[in-house]
Predict the 3D structure of the following.
Amino acid sequence: MRYFGFLSFFLILTINTRAQTQSNCDCYDRLTNLSRYYEEYGDTESALKAYSKGLNFKPKAKWSPYEYYRFGELHAIDGDIQSATHYLAEAFRRGFDTSYFSYEVFDEVRESQGWHQVAQNLDSMKREFQAQINFDYRLAIEDIRGSDQTIRRLIKVPDSTFRLLDSINYSRLKSLFKQYGYPDMQEHGFEGSQGAYLILLHAAMYTQEMYEEILDILNQAINAYGYKRSDMAQFIDRREVWHNKREQIFGTWNAYRADNFSKIRELKAIDEKRMSYNLLRLKEQAIIESRNIPVGYVASAYPDNYFCGHTLQD
């Protein structure tokens, strides 16, 4: 009951405050999510415009390797090889996995003269960027992540062992946060998705106090562009389904490639709850994930200026 009361208060407070305010973090989050919908809908031009506008709300020094990669990918699909080359080079310079460059969509980029010039200098570009990374911090987090993943690969480990390990790793992670702050591209050369988020996700499965503390950490990261509020919805849904054995709240935690959404609590209010976390309506999410719309769902209208000057093209 204490958990339900806390979560209800948390959601009501969020919905009320988000209806009144709209930060650059919100605009960045909403527009980059909208871009994914356009891409799945087959409208690359609109996807590129929405993504470009979304990234304009985020300081460029904080752009992640993935964001450079996706921006480059959209430019490649749109036929702008010069821009695609520039953004992909920046993604790989920052350590993004170059195996993704083998996709067919990049054939024209790989064959371009501009990319041949980039390829000749990419190793030195990587070394230049790596010189800016806080390696002590990065290696410390990778060590914690390694211990987390190693024990999860073992067979027949009791739940008590997982709980002890996750508690220890979370304590180690908090000490690093206290020393350096939450991992940030601008400050440290890497982001929280590279290890830190996984530890927080596992640690959130236990006590209510630990869960609330982690929510506070992630909310602070959101305000610094280190985490997306829309991802917080999935974080909450995961704990609801796995830990509390309850129906999901936001419709973000579903079986991979399943035709239907997993059961959603209070379906009639789903869009309002999703929008309070910068998500698209369930209607658009169904298209993105190729799922059937749940029986009884009725789409709600987006609030005025929800997409920060951009209009959703149905």
